[in-house]
Specification:
Layout (H helix, E strand, L loop, with lengths): L11 H4 L10 E8 L2 E6 L2 E7 L1 H6 L12 E6 L5 E6 L5 E4 L8 E5 L3 E7 L6 H14 L2 E7 L7 H8 L8 E3 L20 E6 L5 H9 L24 E4 L5 E4 L13 H4 L1 H7 L16 H7 L5 H13 L7 H13 L2 H13 L1
Parallel strand pairs: 3-5, 8-9, 8-11, 9-10, 11-13
Antiparallel strand pairs: 1-2, 1-4, 2-3, 4-5, 6-7, 12-13
């Protein structure tokens, strides 16, 4: 059996990072269960684990393979499949992790992040800000997907509530039950694209993906009638090919999204722009004189809730206090595994 890996999101940018002799050893992580990884390769699926060398050299949990990663593998002495190397990531979506200082990768090498929020009791503007903060940092494009539109009776009010938060972010309102709005997702689901669905438990991610797959592949559960909350169904990340030629990554629902790294400047663009006019460069926008942000709150240009959300996320971010150079180094580590690896990739691009 021969599998065309372009159907699993293989792009020329990935192919350029390896030699012709390495091509047969190329695979993509489509599922993970603790230390075991399911790979899709040109000859089919393989169960794999990382080599001792890769594990030894890993400086953090983010240096291990994740769903979406392209890797090079080899056969071990006992015919097991071993992951030798993770290829440079084109994008990385990461979150904070309990009792971990280096975060947890949700998915990699994604083109679009569908941030799902249902239009029932799960609707929460501040939660959208959280997801956008990590999405803008990932290198992928965020799209807000408002699900369960068939049960919503105040659509216009909810869109108005999101207006300041979603500037520059495409918003799709849809229903997996009726099919409404599904056509608006199609421009992001063309051949070769990889999309990831993220959101709280029970917002309808799995139901929506099943509709896109054209079959019931993922388990789903209905919402609880007493509080309009959904039950957790997806327990692990997995990558699936869609009939359109795109790939989709389903992720477990998250009741609480902890911020590991993020792009507050993009998520809160209006606050960032106002801060440039503050009297002090290190203004915290709390009690300093000459604060342009506080002035905007006072005259209604920025809501107090929006500023408080910005300040809360700023405190939570694991990389708070790092300068721009340190932030850039941290991102290079997540994407490429270090400066030397990044230099090798650039050199290969120039040769090609």
């Amino acid at each position: 059996m021969t599998i065309n890996l372009t159907e699993y999101g293989l792009k020329q940018t990935i192919q350029k990072t390896i030699t012709a002799t390495e091509q047969p050893r190329l695979g993509r992580v489509i599922e993970q269960h603790r230390e075991l990884y399911q790979l899709i390769t040109a000859t089919g699926q393989r169960q794999a684990q990382v080599t001792g060398k890769l594990a030894h050299q890993a400086t953090s949990a983010t240096a291990f393979p994740a769903v979406g990663d392209w890797v090079l593998f080899s056969a071990g002495d006992d015919y097991t499949t071993l992951i030798d190397r993770i290829l440079p990531r084109q994008s990385v979506l990461a979150r904070g992790a309990v009792n971990q200082h280096d975060g947890q990768i949700i998915a990699t090498n994604i083109d679009t992040i569908f941030i799902c929020m249902s239009l029932n009791a799960d609707f929460n503007v501040r939660r959208v800000e959280r997801y956008l903060t990590i999405a803008w940092d990932s290198g992928a494009m965020p799209v807000l997907v408002l699900t369960k539109a068939d049960v919503c009776t105040d659509r216009a009010d909810k869109l108005r509530a999101l207006a300041d938060v979603t500037v520059g972010v495409p918003t799709v309102m849809c229903s997996a039950e009726t099919g409404e709005g599904l056509e608006d997702l199609q421009p992001y689901l063309t051949a070769g694209q990889t999309v990831a669905f993220v959101g709280s438990s029970g917002v309808g991610k799995s139901t929506l993906i099943n509709r896109l797959l054209g079959a019931t592949v993922l388990a789903t559960k209905t919402i609880r009638q007493d509080d309009d909350k959904g039950r957790h169904t997806t327990t692990s990340r997995q990558l699936l090919p869609l009939p359109s030629g795109a790939c989709v990554i389903d992720t477990p629902g998250m009741r609480e999204l902890q911020i590991f790294v993020g792009d507050l400047q993009q998520t809160f663009a209006e606050i960032t722009a106002l801060a440039a006019d503050c009297k002090f460069n290190d203004c915290t926008h709390t009690s300093e004189p000459g604060c342009a942000v506080q002035a905007a709150v006072a005259d209604g240009r920025v809501s107090l809730e929006r500023l408080q959300s910005y300040q809360k996320l700023q405190r939570e971010m694991s990389y708070q206090g790092l300068n721009s150079r340190q932030l850039e180094q941290a991102k290079i580590q997540r994407m490429f595994g270090g400066k030397q690896a990044m230099k090798r990739v650039k050199q290969r691009y120039h040769r090609d």
